[in-house]
């Protein structure tokens, strides 16, 4: 059965692969706990304490990085109400697919409607828009998405849930579940739980990230 987890990145054990910091930290603690045995033979077997290398500490951790990319990708969307981005990552932390919500290829997003409601039922966007998750799966640059994670800003709808399951994606990491009372999202959750997909509501460690091109632009 699927399981749902709400995690805060500060306490997440999902960060264990993020870098070697955790290993260094635990080694350091072990070393200090045993430092009173400095004359014993054991001392020679203890881990060497970390040496400061001057490495930055405020770099983006992996999950914040993937969610940031999903966010950046969402900025490509032309939808005036809902911008969604998706980033598919394999188990080696490599990005294999990106997508945002938009009109299908070769279908003009200047001609098709972006309205949520309209007197003319043909003028409603839901008939035409491809969701971010679907685009990310279809745009993938790997053979398949088996055992991948998908990072999305919003919990996926039921149509995307079907695609995610069929693509072999095993984990969904999302920020917002704001439409959880909508029947499409209830059906989505039902399917995803039934299929054993891991569902993680994520709270990024870095809540805001500034992109400042100016610091690289030659004056
Ligand atoms: Zn969807």
Automatic annotation (TrEMBL):
- Cross-referenced Pfam families, in alphabetical order? dCMP_cyt_deam_1
Broadest EC class? hydrolase
Q: Does the keyword Ligase apply?
A: no
* Enzyme Commission code: 3.5.4.12
Q: Where is this region: Disordered?
A: 1-33
Q: Where is the composition biased (Polar residues)?
A: 1-11, 23-33
Bilayer-crossing regions: none
- Bias regions of kind Basic and acidic residues — which residues? 12-22
Boundaries of every CMP/dCMP-type deaminase domain copy: 61-199
What SUPFAM superfamilies does the database record attribute to this sequence?
Answer: Cytidine deaminase-like
Q: Which keywords does the record carry? A: Hydrolase, Metal-binding, Nucleotide biosynthesis, Zinc
Question: What is the top-level taxon of the source organism?
Answer: Eukaryota
Q: Which cofactor does it need?
A: Zn(2+)
UniProt xrefs under PROSITE patterns: CYT_DCMP_DEAMINASES_1, CYT_DCMP_DEAMINASES_2
Q: Would the keyword Zinc turn up in this protein's UniProt record?
A: yes
What family does this chain come from, according to its entry? Answer: Belongs to the cytidine and deoxycytidylate deaminase family.
Would you tell me the protein name for this molecule?
A: dCMP deaminase
Give the originating organism.
Answer: Dermatophagoides pteronyssinus (European house dust mite)
């Amino acid at each position: 059965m699927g399981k749902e987890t709400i995690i805060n990145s500060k306490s997440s054990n999902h960060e264990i692969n993020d870098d070697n910091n955790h290993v260094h930290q635990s080694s350091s603690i072990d070393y200090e706990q045993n430092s009173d045995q400095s004359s014993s033979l054991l001392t020679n077997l203890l881990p060497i304490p970390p040496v400061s290398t001057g490495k930055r500490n405020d770099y983006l951790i992996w999950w914040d990085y993937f969610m940031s990319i999903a966010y950046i990708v969402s900025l490509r969307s032309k939808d005036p109400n809902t911008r969604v981005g998706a980033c598919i990552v394999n188990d080696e932390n490599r990005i294999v697919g990106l997508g945002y919500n938009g009109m299908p290829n070769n279908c003009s997003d200047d001609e098709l409607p972006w309205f949520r409601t309209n007197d003319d039922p043909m003028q409603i966007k839901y008939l035409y828009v491809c969701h971010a998750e679907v685009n990310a799966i279809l745009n993938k640059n790997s053979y398949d998405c088996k055992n991948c994670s998908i990072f999305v800003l919003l919990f996926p709808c039921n149509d995307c849930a079907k695609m995610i399951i069929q693509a072999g994606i095993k984990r969904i990491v999302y920020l917002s579940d704001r439409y959880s009372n909508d029947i499409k999202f209830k059906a989505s959750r039902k399917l995803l739980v039934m299929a054993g997909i891991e569902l993680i509501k994520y709270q990024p460690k870095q809540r805001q990230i500034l992109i400042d091109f100016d610091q690289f632009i030659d004056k």
